[in-house]
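W.,

You were right to be curious about this one. When I first looked at the sequence I had no strong expectations either way, so I just let the prediction run and decided to look at it fresh. Below is the sequence, 196 residues in total, followed by the output.
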Amino acid sequence: MRLYYIQSHNLVKLLASFFIFLFCVTLSTAQQPVAEVVKYFQKKEVHDFGITTYFEIEIKINNREGDIYADIGIPFSTNKVNDLRAGIYTSSGEEIRKLKKKDIKTVSDISDISLYEDSYNLEFSLRHNQYPYSIKYSYNTFLDTYVHIAHWSPAFYKNIPTLKSELIVEAPLSRNLFIQNSDGISYRKEENDTKQ
């Protein structure tokens, strides 16, 4: 009888350990987002003749449900997209595949209320079948006429977390800039007269 008790006691311990492990695995995967923006960087250089904007984005796709974030759309109109580079990377940072020109489509972005608009999207998809993987892409735009320099939010997508975001605005000292920011977003101003 005692031998049976030890076996069932070990079985109970084994079952309890299994359920605790299963609970922890379920809890950890339930808390992990389907995707997350690892890096969202934007740099605006204000010139006398316009604004050049540089973008760098890294999105980590954690599971199959996050693949929708592997479909990228870059809006543009008169500000043409230049130097577009993109690729898929493993979790260790090894590049798996580069974006090719044939993978990029230009699609009209006409709204339902307008008959004609000069708005477009550059669209491409970079998907992989092993998770997690990352998509890194960068590009720049130039705008020669503008009303405001930056309308920026630190969250790149509203449905997934953004881990790190940064906006840099470089402007001549002769420009008087007005900064309006939301609570919780900090900024610093640096003046350097070496840049003209």
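Here's what jumped out at me. The two ends are 90 Å apart (CA to CA). And, maybe more interesting for your project: The chain has a mean pLDDT of 82.

Coffee later to discuss?

I.
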